[in-house]
Amino acid sequence: MVLFPLYFSTYVSSLSLSPSFPLCHSDESYALLQFKNSFSVEYTSVCDGTPPPTTSWEAGSDCCAWSGVMCDNRTGHVIGLDLYCGQLQGIIHSNSSLFLLHHLQSLHLSRNDFRGCAIPHEIGKLSNLQLLEIFGANLSGHIPPQFSYLSKLRTLRLDSLSSKQPLRLTTSTFKRILANLTNLQVLDLSGVDMLYVEPVFLMNLSSSLTSLRIPNCGLQGNSPDTIFHLPKLEQLYLVGNDNLRGSLPRYNWSSSLRKLDLSMTKFLIDIPDLTRNLKYLDSLHLGNCNFVGSYPLLFSNLTQIISLDLSDNNIGGHIPWSSLNLKRMEELNLAGNNFIGQLPRFYSYNGTQISALPYSSENISFGSVPWSINSLDLSNNLLNGTIPNWLYSIPSLTYLNLRNNQFTGHIPEFESFSLQSLDLSNNKLHGSIPSSIFQQVNLGSLDLSSNYLSGFVHNHLSLNNTLAFSSVNTNHSLGILPNLGSLSLSYNQIQGQVPEWLWNVGTDSLLYLNLSHNSLTDIERIPWRNLQYLDLRSNLLHGQLLIPPPSIRVFSVSHNRMTGVVPSWICNLRSLEVLDLANNTLNGKLPPCMGNLSGNLSVLDIRMNKLHGMIPATFFGKKSALRAVNLNGNQLEGFLPPSLLNCEKLEFLDIGNNMINDTFPHWLESLPVLQVLILRSNKFHGSVPNPTVRFPFQKLRILDLSHNKLSGNLPTKLFENLRAMMETDTKKGLEYMGDLYYCQDSVSVEMKGHFYQLVKILTTFTTIDLSSNNFEGEIPQSIGELKSLIVLNISHNKLNGLFPPSLGNLSKLESLDLSSNVLVGTIPQQLSDLNFLSTLDLSENRLVGRIPSGTQFQTFGINSYRGNMDLCGLPLSKLCGNDLQHPSSPNFEQEGDEDEQTNGIDWMIVLIGFGCGMVIGISIGYTVLSEKKIAQLMRRIGGERLCKMLKRLKNKAR
Asked: I want to staple 618 with a disulfide (CB 3.0 to 4.6 A). Which of 94, 454, 476, 595 is the partner?
């Protein structure tokens, strides 16, 4: 992006050598004015205050003199149009006058807002185009096959990274583009949806290609290694295609290849093959990859690299500093590994190479480190010791991230003032905050949270124990950071009112503010005019909600003491994507105008308040973007509004623990991506009818209808269509519902009479809870088809008939509760094959015969079978037939007492989970982790739209 204006002007000047300039053609001048007038122009901060080029466009003047317009000096035809950061807002229509400019050779429309429109097919009429760039312009829809008509293109750049809906590329269109655009030198399709494009067609890329960028495109399958052989290829970026497989060629790499990024792909990285060809590269990014071979061998061949990313690869041992060319290194990312030890303190320098010396060395250290590094990320490792002074002396350092290590000691004073982002959080640092931090005039992101800092800042702001801000009034300290874009002071002991100095920090620049998990009692105002992320969770705030600025996208005040009603001014926050008001004492009714937020609002969490009345009919607006709705634990009543059907993106719906009085909302079955439906503890009544659509609840994985008044037979037809519960995908890793940085979908699960809060929901977790209703009849055999089911609870109903043997097919089942029914017959021997079954309750039925033998059944105590007078066999003392008398196991007889004596859950649950029920074990493990540890695990696991949004927001804030 930075190089484009120079390239563009050079390209145009090569066509403009004549000293005289003919006037532009009137029809082209008119077409340009029509194109301008089809958009509105709105000034934004994205373009740093640069006036839009079209402000100079006036009728009656020579269009060749207009800003952004280039003409051929010989013919006067418009051959170039550069409207980068034109701040245009509107739609490019198919009849746009743009397509009348047939002589265009270069077109640059990046950094505008085309409001999610598709690229018109008429783009193919501009057949003379040699350069086309449209990135950061909010386009969506399919890339038209008419792109293949642009056979003269040398540069094509499209992206979807800033769009709410991505551009899409089909295999057929991609084939046509590759077949006809044989002059392509630069191809950039960043973020374009290529999920259904077969990677094999990459072998048809133009031999003229110098740069190929297709990151985060959803490519999957096997990639041909021929892309590494393209003779002129200098840059190759495949990062973020996490299902794209391939291997590196052993020989014949392109000798021109300089930059390679295969991060977050499934490429098999053979280290000998890589090191044999590393001599050509100066930028190597292999974060979160699959390596073969020894890591030391890799490090021994990196002396020519100036940008290196080996993050999230579980590399251990000490960082081999002496193997890196620190004099040339500009970017180094070793985050998310298992590096140990201390950072070296001293270096020897022979004029070309910096060498790390032993930690105990007394050699003279550099007064000025000859290291030109710009970005250093060593976060999420096991590094310890103090942070050496030389690290604070690098004059070019703009980004420093050492979070989540075990560094101790003081923070030294900075000798340079180039920092733009500093993160030292989650370490064991102590002492005072150095005054030099507050002299970093370019600092846009600062995070010192979760340390043990103390002392005074500028002798104004008192600190004590764990960065505990007092309520001393001051207009200084951090207030001298007017350009700060991101500030996190979470997980400290900030008490009382928000410190006065904070009001002067980044009034216009602050985008991200996190004050969560402190002891704040009052916040007077929200003065940051462009704030987009405000997190005040887990404080002691009281009173009514304060109004955030219209720019706010994420707003959380959950787990506080807020009172009053949910104010109607919330409906005016049209940019809002996450609204979290959970766990307060808000009362009153839900505002009907909330439907006005339907276009952007993704997460709505108002659980555990004192709201009452009906859910308004207009509460869920048309074309809703809602992904998660949680209204659990209020006093809502009446019916569920049918407007819920507007939420076609809804994945999570929890309206449990209210007073909703309605029949089962079977019409929710048509929501295409609904995964979690919780209606527990309401007044739902009547039967659960048969589905009325072809694929009902096709994504549903958690269904909780417990503690209602539902009656009739169990919904056999519904069980036969729960497709997501029939899938047993063993290839899935440890993934959770929600978004990595903020939104955690959580549920409570009842097992063995206890409720366990799953702070995050595994995507493989499936459960059905129909307990405490009035269901009757037999348990249908079709439940046995739900082979991914982990928890099944149909207790406390009026079910009768035989125990269905098909339950033995539930190979993933970890918890089964059929207690307090009228089941008869024997317990099927097939249940002994359930190797993960760790909780079983069949008590209070009319079962007879021998209790099955098997590994799992030996772990269940007598409480699992009580109230079944005709059962026999271990662990019961009642014998079966000619069995010998077996004394009851003391361990089993004490089971009930142990349950009563248990006051909490410890890590034994997780250990049991791995042995008998991994999914539940890991999920419940989250309930005993500190929130700090949860945050650390979240950062190590992976993440969708809000995750990307927050990454962009933090980067922008820097």
From this structure: 595
Closest to 325 measured CA to CA, from 299, 362, 364: 299
Sequence spans of domains, the chain: 1-15+26-122+136-154
pTM: 0.67
- Residue labelled with tokens 């039967």: 687
- Rg of the Cα atoms in the chain: 32
Q: Which of 569, 570, 654, 577 is nearest to 608 (CA)?
A: 654
Closest to 384 measured CA to CA, from 342, 421, 346:
342
State the DSSP string of 540-588. Answer: --EESPPPPPTT-SEEE--SSEE-SB--GGGGG-TT--EEE--SS--EE
Ranges of beta strands (E only) in 595-736 are: 603-605, 610-614, 628-630, 635-638, 652-654, 659-660, 676-678, 685-686, 702-704, 709-713
Least confident of 90-99, 198-207, 917-926: 917-926
What's the burial of 504, exposed, middle or buried (CB within 10 Å: 0-12/13-18/19+)? middle
> What is the tens place of the pLDDT at every residue in 657-701?
999 999 999 999 999 999 999 999 999 999 999 888 888 898 899
Measured N-to-C along each axis, helices 918-928 and 908-916 cross at an angle, to the nearest 10 degrees, of 170
Q: Which of 752, 744, 745, 738 is nearest to 860 (CA)?
A: 752
Q: Which helix (H) or strand (E) holds 802?
A: strand 798-802
Model confidence at 597, pLDDT cuts 50, 70, 90, reads confident
Six-digit token pair at 175?
Answer: 């084939």
Separation of alpha carbons 728 and 836, rounded Å? 14
Query: Contact, 518 vs 490, CB < 8 A?
Result: yes
Per-residue pLDDT at 153: 96
- Residue 534 φ/ψ region, left for φ over 0, alpha for ψ in the -120 to 50 degree band, beta for the rest: beta
For 30-34, the CB contacts below 8 A with 24+ separation are: 30/97, 31/97, 31/98, 31/100, 31/101, 32/57, 32/63, 32/66, 32/69, 32/78, 32/81, 32/97, 32/101, 33/57, 33/59, 34/97
Determine the 3-state secondary structure of 168 from DSSP: strand
Token duo for residue 126: 């501009």
Contact 668, 692 (CB under 8 A): no
